[in-house]
Design goal:
The protein is an alpha/beta fold and 807 residues long. It folds into 4 domains: 187 residues, ATP-grasp fold, A domain (Dna Ligase, domain 1); 148 residues, D-amino Acid Aminotransferase, Chain A, domain 1 (2-Layer Sandwich), CATH 3.30.470.20; 127 residues, 3-Layer(bba) Sandwich (Glucose Oxidase, domain 1), CATH 3.50.30; 172 residues, TIM Barrel (Alpha-Beta Barrel), CATH 3.20.20.60. Helix content is 37%, strand content 21%. It is built from 30 helices and 30 strands. The strands form 6 sheets. The chain has an 8-stranded parallel beta barrel, surrounded by 6 helices. Strands 15-19-18-17-16-20-21 form a 7-stranded mixed beta barrel. A 6-stranded antiparallel β-sheet has the order 9-8-7-6-12-13. Strand 23, helix 14 and strand 24 form a beta-alpha-beta unit.
Length: 807
């Protein structure tokens, strides 16, 4: 009887055993030993060790056969690679499993049957001895077999898993990463199946995988077995949770995105253990996970990350696969590995991509990476066409799996119809450092082979544009920048860019605009409030837009709160000044249902906007929803760094009535408190935009009500000089450097300084006009808020100005 060196129980191993059982299995054993006491559920099983693999290869002569077959290999010759790989795999599968090893697997499986029942269903997972390493994740390189039952099927699946060490993509990957082929061995984990075939599954990252933002947990979820998500064959739901307030008992779910989830993998029958079927319409239109599920997975992600960070002695973000059993209703972690891209990134180095031209949009989807690339497109629907692909082309396909990797590594960008941010295409493109757009839905039909295209993933919604468009890149080491006395803040229009922008050396957000979020919501808030009054045709359009939400008002509040909370989370605890909606009537009319609620104005720039809307009965219910969203972000989610700001407040009465309306909607401030209105939380500071001459002329009276001012230099310029800034013919007349505008700005700054209240400015003036930046510094402005693309150069400019003024 041989020593039991070829089989080990999963709960006997730990990360010390990587050489013996591979990274994946070692991690499962580590969690079984160390984290089940923390409430984390991990299915058990047994492991066929790397020694067993080596014994198999030597006993069958496969080691010699493989070495001979791979001699002289050129991985860039894709046809030759495919021929050699297929020859090796077929030989390993046909080889006779050594009886002594087969008996050990049989015995281990029977032991599982004692615990879980006769003919227990298992997952047979490959685990190589050189995987989940920094810079080499080996993600999806080797095969997994699900729903396997019976001794014979387990032995066969084990042999197929061993053969998967020589898939074309695995051979190519090892070669490119500098691993000698003969030094890598494969361990096989045989793990109790979680019945997610009648439940759900997905992936959790303890980091935002696009930006590298450390304080977010990102969860993807789809119905059925997890292979559909991992392989990118389905566009899953996606949830994002902010980590930081969790220690205080708050679980801010800052984003929920409904995926189409068109198919799912379930158990099959006969010789096929699994099959792919279409999902039901009701499954597509509802979220997979409850808030409680999201909270559980988030807490587990934090616990697992903390554990591996302690073990490694350095921050270790984690990539975890989870499954929800449809029978017992419980969640399980079925894999956990280190995230291998952002863990190695230098957070001080900021690379910015800036597109300088526009073109027709061919398709859009979820961004992977924050880059821009150009090249001729090539539409390929099968890896069998890989020989057609040329280096530098943009790969356009339905989806990718590990078989695509030999061509993915020579692509300038990747665009897929299906998949989410945790799909195979997303994971590999991050590791390769190339931009990708996943889940576009129509890339393969809208893009033709040979078309010159530009792939832009600098926002969370990536776009493919027709033509080879110009773009620029710049790299900065923010750790070496000077630190000016004047605070430099950033303007945020879209939550899509918040995590990347938060890594800039800024003191917070001086202007977060609600307009982009409301445009993404896409429906006029009054049309949602009065949903029952809408026509059947409009209701149908609203229903399509609000999938996943039965309550139409909740759709608005949830999504507005989500957009605001993403920005708040990105910069927490730095202040984030959120300006209430400042759409003009023509912009509100463009929202679904907007025409019924918005008048036609000759000059919307000077019309029904800002505070005058908030206190008007025609719009007041919609403004109350904006207040409710901010109250949720501050009170329920714990983002006390959010400061609301009122735009375009022409008169003192408008200011007074707006503050009363805010207090009644759940945003109590000091002024509302003086009016005897009840408040149910801590006082909320409220700022106002200083952009109407009356704000300057009556600055002290306005500051009796508001806690600070942010100067909107664009509007203040147009109203001081009597021009419409939308009228291009008059653009030459004035800018912030005009003496009359400067006089107003100086007065506003001095009024705030006298009262000890916040004063900032938001606009491009300080970046575009060096003299204007110097003027603001000299006047004692507290902060300048800028668009992200000019932050670096303006910091240098402000520091230079401050230095010269001191001389």
């Amino acid at each position: 009887m041989m020593k039991k060196q070829y089989i080990r129980n999963m709960n006997e191993v730990s990360m010390r055993d990587v050489d013996s059982v591979g990274g994946k299995n070692a991690s499962l054993g580590e969690m079984l030993q160390e984290l089940t006491s923390e409430g984390i559920r991990v299915p058990g099983g047994f492991i066929v060790t790397a020694d067993a693999y080596r014994f198999f290869m030597k006993d069958t002569g496969m080691d010699v056969f493989v070495a001979k077959t791979l001699s002289g290999l050129d991985t860039h010759n894709i046809r030759d690679l495919a021929t050699r790989g297929k020859k090796i795999r077929e030989a390993i599968i046909k080889a006779k499993m050594p009886s002594v090893l087969a008996e050990e697997i049989k015995h281990a499986y029977h032991e599982m049957e004692k615990e879980y029942g006769r003919n227990v269903d298992v997952a047979v997972r490959s685990s190589a001895t050189a995987e989940d390493l920094p810079g080499a994740s080996f993600a999806g390189e080797h095969e997994t077999f699900l729903g396997i039952r019976g001794v014979r099927a387990v032995i066969t699946a084990t042999q197929h898993a061993m053969a998967s060490l020589f898939t074309d993509r695995a051979i190519s990957y090892r070669e490119d990463k500098g691993f000698r082929q003969e030094t890598i061995a494969l361990s096989v984990g045989v793990q109790k199946m979680v019945r997610s075939d009648v439940g759900a599954s997905g992936i959790t990252f303890s980091i935002d995988t696009e930006s590298g933002f450390r304080n977010a947990v990102v969860i993807s979820a789809a119905w059925g077995l997890g292979e559909m998500v991992v392989q990118g064959k389905v566009t899953p739901d996606e949830y994002m949770v902010f980590k930081q307030p969790i220690a205080k008992g708050k679980f801010p779910i800052i984003s929920k995105t409904l995926g189409d989830k068109l198919v799912k993998m379930v158990y099959g029958s006969g010789s096929k253990p699994t099959k792919v079927v279409s999902t039901l319409q009701k499954e597509r239109e509802r979220f997979v996970l409850s808030d409680e599920d999201i909270r559980t997975l988030t807490q587990w992600a934090i616990t697992i990350e903390d554990h591996y960070t302690r073990k490694a002695g350095t921050w270790t973000p984690m990539d975890m696969e989870w499954a929800k059993d449809g029978r017992d209703g419980k969640l399980y972690i079925v894999q956990a590995r280190p995230e291998t891209v952002h863990a190695l990134r230098d957070p001080n180095v900021v690379v910015e991509y800036s597109r300088k031209e526009n073109g027709p949009i061919l398709c859009e989807g979820m961004s992977v990476g924050s880059k821009i690339a150009t090249g001729p497109a090539r539409v390929i629907l099968s890896p069998k066409q890989a020989h057609l692909f040329k280096k530098g082309e943009v790969l356009v396909t339905d989806m990718t799996d590990p078989d695509w990797e030999p061509i993915m590594k020579i692509a300038s960008a990747i665009v897929t119809d299906k998949g989410g941010r945790t799909s195979h295409a997303a994971i590999v493109s991050r590791e390769l450092g190339i931009p990708a757009i996943v889940g576009s839905g129509n890339a393969t039909s809208n893009i033709k082979t040979g078309m010159e295209v530009t792939v832009d993933t600098t926002g969370s919604r990536g776009v493919v544009l027709k033509g080879k468009l110009r773009f620029e890149t710049s790299q900065h080491n923010v750790g070496r920048l000077p630190k000016p006395e004047t605070k430099v803040m950033v303007n945020m229009a879209s939550p899509d860019h918040a995590f990347e922008a938060s890594m800039l050396p800024v003191t917070g957000v001086g202007l977060a605009r609600e307009e982009f979020i409301m445009a993404r919501i896409g429906v006029h808030p009054m049309a949602l409030i009065e949903y029952k009054k809408q026509s059947p045709a409009l209701k149908k359009k609203i229903d399509e837009k609000t999938k996943g939400w039965e309550d139409k008002v909740a759709y608005f509040v949830d999504n507005l709160a989500s957009g605001i909370s993403i920005i708040a989370a990105a910069f927490y605890p730095r202040p984030v000044i959120v300006r209430f909606s400042d759409f003009k009537t023509n912009e509100y009319r463009s929202l679904l249902g907007g025409e019924a609620y918005e008048p036609s104005e000759e000059n919307p720039m000077l019309g029904w906007r800002g505070a005058s809307r908030y206190i008007d009965p025609r719009f007041a219910p919609a403004f109350a929803l904006e207040c409710k969203a901010i109250a949720r972000v501050r009170n329920d989610m714990g983002f006390d760094n959010v400061i609301p700001m009122v735009p375009f407040c022409r008169t003192l009465k408008e200011g007074h009535d707006t503050l009363i309306a805010m207090a009644r909607a759940g945003l109590p401030g000091e002024y509302a408190q003086l009016q005897g209105l009840k408040r149910d939380s801590a006082t909320v500071p409220v700022y106002m935009m200083c952009e109407v001459p009356s704000n300057v002329l009556l600055a002290d009276a306005f500051l009796d009500m508001f806690d600070g001012m942010s100067i909107g230099s664009n509007d203040l310029t147009q109203l001081t000089l009597g021009l419409d800034r939308d009228a291009g013919e008059l653009a030459y007349i004035g800018n912030e450097n005009d003496n009359s505008v400067r006089s107003f700005i100086s007065s506003a700054i001095q009024a705030c300084r006298r009262r000890g209240k916040y004063v900032g400015i938001c606009g491009q003036g300080p970046s575009d006009i060096p003299d204007f930046a110097a003027f603001l510094v000299q006047e004692g402005i507290e902060s300048m808020s800028l668009n992200p693309d000019v932050v670096i150069k303006t910091i240098e400019l402000i520091h230079k100005t401050e230095t010269s003024l001191k001389k």
